[in-house]
Amino acid sequence: MLKLLSFVSSHNFTPLSNFIGGIQFQSAFTPTNHFFHLARVFSSISHSHSKMEADSYMFGPYKIDKKEVFYSTDLSYALVNLRPLLPGHVLVCPRREAKRFADLTADETSDLWLTAQKVGKQLESYHKASSLTFAIQDGPQAGQTVPHVHIHIIPRKSGDFEKNDEIYDALDVKEKEMKQSLDLDKERKDRSIEEMAEEAAEYRKLL
């Protein structure tokens, strides 16, 4: 906006003229009017963008209550899990509905992993864990049930699984349960919106 103001103030504009059938018509264009018109447009866009950030979170075809979201950027957001595998098990998703990892733009890919890094670091400390599992199930044969790219972030502690690789089998089960819960609206059976909102509020304080 400052660049626009500088451009307007440094150029000597004259009213635009059109000639039709030899009659001269003066337009109502002036630098000041044009500047304030653009200012109103940018203000409107900014307001709409802020509203989108506050109210609109989609996970594939499913609408996510904003109370379940505890961190967001322009391109990504993090939400608590309907049925966490371990304490602190959360998801990080791109805002845009991208079905496969290869569908993400370079900016979305970078922002998604930077968000996951930031969220994971804080949750590992909060849950007094010693490690983190980051996992993406990219496509149906890989166990993905919701057609929207998402990273599972799971704080890990010694002994949480007898065999470490068992967590991936458990992730497959939880992914299927999550899809069933979203489809049949059974998620409130295990985790109420109040429980998830409370957890999200705690994580929000960390970021």
TrEMBL record:
Cofactor: Mn(2+)
Source organism of the structure: Nicotiana tabacum (Common tobacco)
Superkingdom field: Eukaryota
Cleaved signal peptide residues: none
Reaction catalysis annotation: P(1),P(3)-bis(5'-adenosyl) triphosphate + H2O = AMP + ADP + 2 H(+)
Family matches, as InterPro entries: Bis(5'-adenosyl)-TPase_reg (IPR051884), FHIT (IPR039383), Histidine_triad_CS (IPR019808), HIT-like (IPR011146), HIT-like_sf (IPR036265)
Enzyme Commission no: 3.6.1.29
Keywords: Hydrolase, Nucleotide-binding
Site residues (Important for induction of apoptosis), renumbered to this chain: 168
A GO molecular function held by the record: nucleotide binding
Limits of the HIT domain: 56-163
Protein name as catalogued: Bis(5'-adenosyl)-triphosphatase
Binding site for substrate: 81, 137, 143-146, 152
Motif (Histidine triad motif): 148-152
Active site: 150
Pfam families linked to this entry: HIT
